[in-house]
Design goal:
Length: 116
């Protein structure tokens, strides 16, 4: 069924509501309905005001969500990939795991002494 043109020069209730919202965006639904009723010459319900506002808000383009930041790749025990790479470099530098452990123990001792 086709929409009928309003008696006030072709303006519809919905268009009157849009005009009132644009003119006064902070007005309540009741205030908009009252002003639109005067403009159209017919009663405008508050429910229609909220329906028009909701449909107009749905037409506005939304901002795209940004991609979620990825967590760093980890090994099975929770160490990051970068940490594993650095540990491999330490092993290569030290020569074997025993020397690497001794270097780590010495670093821990120095760290404790600096915190005191």
């Amino acid at each position: 069924m086709a929409k009928k043109k309003a008696a006030t020069g072709g303006i519809t209730k919905s268009q009157a509501i849009r005009d009132q919202v644009q003119a006064n965006p902070n007005a309540t639904g009741e205030q908009i309905a009252e002003a639109a009723s005067k403009q159209v010459g017919e009663p405008v319900s508050i429910a229609l005001v909220y329906q028009v506002k909701t449909k107009d808000a749905a037409k506005k383009p939304r901002r795209k969500k940004t991609a979620a930041r990825q967590a760093p790749a980890t090994s099975g025990k929770g160490a990051s990939l970068q940490l594993v790479k650095e540990a491999v470099q330490l092993l290569q530098h030290a020569g074997d795991s025993k020397a690497a452990r001794e270097a780590l123990n010495a670093a821990e001792d120095i760290s404790r002494m600096l915190k005191k």
